[in-house]
Amino acid sequence: SISTHEKKDGIISMLPSSDVCCTNSASLSSSTCGDPRYELSCENNMTVLTLFSGKYYVKSINYKYYTIRVVDPGIEDRDCSSIPRYFITTSNFTSYYNYQYHGDLYEAHSQSSWLGHIIYLNCSKPVKKDPMYVDISSCVKCNSEGHVYAIAGNIKTGRLNVDCQVKLVAMSSAPALKAHISTGQSYSYMEIHEMLSYGFYISWTRRACEDSCDINKQDCYFNQTTIGLECVSIVESACTTPLGFQIRCGNSSFHCVPVTRAKINEMK
């Protein structure tokens, strides 16, 4: 069992510190109990989720939206000299770009959360007159030659300085990062580090759908209005395009599938 700090409106906040008392392992919810694919563990009094080849500390679990917020173990709160341990992007999740893919245990896209990137670059020359590149030398002392910068958000090819190479990418669901991408507001590296400390959300909706729907005959999606899962009969006459949408075969009418909809097959 894993003791929790707070439970409110279906959200459990974890304390990844010595105040957390946990033994053995636990699952995300009763529906995943006994499913080894979704077990949490406890290491050094930290609640841990294994994701790909990395182990992330659990910050909170939202049972209403089937999301879990995790943080890279290399990040320490209020210590801007700490950097992420793992290289991870939305590209690690095949289902992020292919909604018909069902091999991912967790999804990077969720109806109730948002994901952005923090990018670290090493540049052979100083980058001037581009506020997107935030110098991290005041916090992080790197052994490598060159100049190291952090970028909050994605970067287009045209903005990538020819003297720079991407060295590390991490993810964050911090509200401040989302606001930055929307407004273009500049941030200090301390503020960017706080975004990393917030962590990022992933969803186990696919697993929940296995229990709620007939996966052989129904699609499953999360309804934002009712705040719950809904099962929809599969359109037998629909064909899936390479982009993940469906069209009705044999005529010109289109049947568009919402991007939040996940067709659930057995993940075995």
TrEMBL record:
What protein is this chain from?
Receptor-like protein kinase
Which Gene Ontology CC terms are recorded? membrane
Where does the record place the Wall-associated receptor kinase galacturonan-binding domain?
30-72
Q: Which UniProt keywords apply?
A: Kinase, Receptor, Signal, Transferase
Q: How does it sit in the membrane?
A: Single-pass membrane protein
Quote any Pfam family the record assigns: GUB_WAK_bind
Single GO MF descriptor: polysaccharide binding
The question of whether Lipoprotein is a record keyword is answered with no
**Native source species:** Trifolium pratense (Red clover)
Location comes to: Membrane
* Keyword ATP-binding set for record: no
UniProt-listed InterPro entries:
WAK_GUB
